[in-house]
Write a structure and sequence with these properties.
Blueprint lengths: L2 H9 L8 H9 L4 E4 L8 H9 L4 E4 L3 H13 L4 E4 L5 H12 L5 E4 L1 H5 L1 H10 L3 E4 L22 H4 L5 E5 L4 H10 L6 E4 L7 E7 L3 H10 L6 E4 L3 H13 L4 E4 L5 H12 L5 E4 L14 E4 L6 H8 L9 E7 L2 H11 L4 H19 L4 H8 L20 E3 L1 H13 L6 H9 L4 H5 L16 H13 L3 E4 L5 E4 L1 H7 L6 E3 L27 H21 L3 H4 L2 H10 L4 H5 L6 H24 L1
Parallel strand pairs: 1-6, 1-7, 2-4, 2-5, 3-4, 5-6, 8-13, 9-11, 9-12, 10-11, 12-13
Antiparallel strand pairs: 14-17, 15-16
Helix pairs in contact: 2-3, 10-11, 14-15, 17-18, 17-21, 18-20, 22-24, 22-26
The structure holds adenosine-5'-diphosphate and magnesium ion.
Magnesium ion binds next to loops.
């Protein structure tokens, strides 16, 4: 049993990713494993490879049908005999799978947790013999995770019912609390516990101030032609609007949200996965189970619910290790919308958690601390900053000193007993004699009209900035209103200054400085222009092959593989096998077409 040899011949990779070898070794020795590796860390390989080495059968529990289909397709492309059993199979297809497994023709079997819960089915598994249980997306078992699935609870008995069979749990959700919960609930027996490095150096993180977010998203997408990406929006309505806006400009964008029919959702996902649609605009309903490795960017048009959710969502970019980008458009008006939901939560614990999540998220956008440092801190991982892979570290964040304006506004808040909201405070500093202002005699305050040079809307924005930065806080109860926090008082008394993220000028909406992206970082295969041209030729070929084989393009070869091919230009099988991601099965299946394309490209250039 030589895992490295299998890695090279079957998968076409030179070396293991961090921790893969440790995990494989533990599994092959029959130990239980808990592994938290970031999205794109290469968890599937940790059970796909043992399936080839450990007869008779490796069972993978997976939460979503789409995820199983994807994984099975991907594994088969590598020549790993894989199948799934779930509710999407008709009786005939299921019978075929049973037959193949009992004959020993299928070595990797994906199951839903519901299926595994059936006692009769467990009996069948015992007859077949299982050499490894892998629980993918294992955080689904924990209520502390962000994707709790009650049916995962039935997995807690496999440890006892299949003594001697190792159980390996995989997740990309790495808070300690979730880790403990998974180990506990699956009853893992003295597991080899592995926590990967959660840093994703290939992803560039940025936050931009939003004003006309639809236009900002449009301009972002137009700046990334031909690059696959996901736009996340908070509501179904904004998903639909954003998708139509992109379509108007000839961008192949598909909407995805829970209000669409199953068919519409499946078709949107298929189009995206097959590179027939460049963009999917989605609510958070979209994402888990999308293993598409060439997603190049993730845009958030609204503030995410938590840093953890944000990290999972952005993690869907750059799985192939090539350069990727995560851009979050933030406007303080989002806070009010999230608060509206929080205030309606019935369970106090839930409400507190949501409120804490919101504060951490606000710190992420507002604090001016390296984004990577903040994200990793959330996973108990230290990072010393200066990452050169976020807008803070590259000096791309523009802040404006708003100390004097903040003082005017907070002084109005103090003088009115900290009992009023943003609109009323804005009316006072703007000098608007509304009924409410005169009724309370606020037109006689010294702060009345001190901010006439700006619009009411601008002042409401400042209030939101102050709230986002934690200088003003909303007080609940009968005397509700915005009151000053400790740090608010420090700014009011001139002991500290207040700066806020600059709003983009309307003319430069969404303009980006691409040349600063990921400067000095060595992720990604850089190509010369002629190599880029060959890369595009190979990518078109991949799309043609994918269409005729009805598989997603990235399961044929990843972007990274194509980029390496474009650079080293192999013209025979031996050279092709040296390319990252080309194993024996793929070389045989696709080698001739790709070699042909490369030879044609080279001879066209020689003669042309
Ligand atoms: P995860 O499930 O951890 O999010 P995947 O298993 O989907 O990640 O793997 C992400 C990508 O990394 C896939 O395209 C996979 O082929 C690739 N990959 C896995 N292991 C290796 C390796 N040792 N070398 C190079 N690429 C790898
Ligand atoms: Mg995975």
């Amino acid at each position: 049993m030589d895992p490295l040899k299998t890695l090279r011949t079957t998968f076409g990779f030179d070396s293991f990713r961090p921790h893969q070898e440790e995990i494989l070794e533990a599994v092959l020795r029959g130990r239980d494993v808990f592994a938290a590796l970031p999205t794109g860390g290469g968890k599937s390989l940790c059970y796909q490879l043992p399936a080839l080495l450990l007869p008779p059968l490796t069972v993978v529990v997976s939460p979503l049908i789409a995820l199983m289909q994807d994984q099975v397709r991907g594994a088969r492309e590598y020549g790993v005999p894989a199948a799934f059993i779930n509710s999407s199979l008709n009786a005939e297809a299921a019978r075929r799978v049973y037959r193949d497994v009992s004959r020993g023709d299928t070595k990797l079997l994906y199951l839903s947790p519901e299926r595994l819960a059936l006692e009769g089915f467990r009996e069948t598994l015992r007859e077949w013999g299982v050499s490894l249980f892998a629980v993918d997306e294992a955080h689904c078992i924990s209520e502390w995770g962000h994707e709790f699935r009650p049916d995962y609870r039935s997995l807690s008995t496999i440890r006892e019912e299949f003594p001697g069979v190792p159980v390996a749990a995989f997740t990309a959700t790495a808070t300690r609390r979730v880790q403990d919960d998974i180990i506990d609930l699956l009853k893992l027996d003295d597991p080899v516990a592995i926590r990967g490095d959660f840093d994703r150096p290939e992803i560039f993180y940025r936050v931009q101030r939003k004003n006309h977010v639809g236009e900002q998203i449009l301009s972002f997408v137009r700046d990334h032609p031909d690059e696959s990406g996901i736009v996340y929006r908070a509501t179904r309505k904004s998903v639909e609007e954003t998708a139509s806006r992109l379509q108007e400009f000839g961008i192949t964008a598909v909407p995805y949200h829970a209000g669409l029919s199953d068919d519409a959702r499946r078709s949107a996902q298929d189009l995206f996965v097959r590179d027939e649609a460049q963009v999917v605009v989605a609510t958070i309903a979209f994402g888990m189970g999308i293993d598409k490795s060439n997603v190049r960017w993730i845009v958030h048009g609204d503030l995410p619910r938590s840093v953890e959710a944000y990290y999972q969502e952005t993690g869907r970019a750059g799985r192939d290790g090539e350069r990727a980008e995560a851009c979050l458009f933030f406007g303080p008006q989002d806070i009010a919308k999230i608060r509206y939901h929080i205030e309606r939560m019935q369970v106090p614990d839930e409400r507190d958690r949501a409120e804490r999540n919101l504060r951490t998220m606000l710190r992420y956008v507002e604090s001016g601390v390296c984004r990577r440092t903040q994200l990793l801190a959330h996973f108990d991982q230290e990072h010393r900053g200066e990452c050169d892979g976020c807008d803070v570290c590259t000096g791309d964040v523009h802040r404006k000193d708003l100390t004097v304006s903040a003082q005017k506004l907070m002084s109005a808040a103090i003088r009115t007993g900290e009992r009023f909201g943003a609109h009323h405070l804005a009316d006072i500093v703007c000098g608007n004699t509304t009924d409410r202002v005169t009724q309370f005699g606020h037109d006689r305050l010294p702060t009345f009209g001190v901010g006439r040079e700006q619009t009411r809307q601008w002042w409401i924005g400042v209030t939101q900035d102050l709230e986002a930065a934690g200088l003003l806080a909303r007080r609940e109860g009968p005397r509700s209103g915005l009151s000053l926090t400790e740090s608010g008082r420090r700014v009011l008394h001139g002991r500290e200054r207040f700066t806020a993220m600059a709003r983009p000028e309307p003319a430069s909406t969404g303009e980006r400085k691409r040349e600063t992206d990921g400067r000095n970082r060595d992720t990604g295969v850089a190509l010369r222009p002629d190599q880029e041209e060959l890369f595009r030729v190979l990518r078109d070929l991949r799309l043609d092959l994918a269409r005729s084989r009805q598989v997603p393009p990235y399961v044929i070869f990843s972007d990274k593989t194509l980029r390496v091919m474009a650079r080293i230009r192999p013209t025979d099988t031996k050279a092709l096998l040296r390319v990252h991601g080309v194993g024996e099965v793929k070389a045989e299946r696709y080698g001739p077409s790709f070699l042909e394309a490369i030879r044609t490209f080279l001879s066209d250039r020689a003669t042309g």
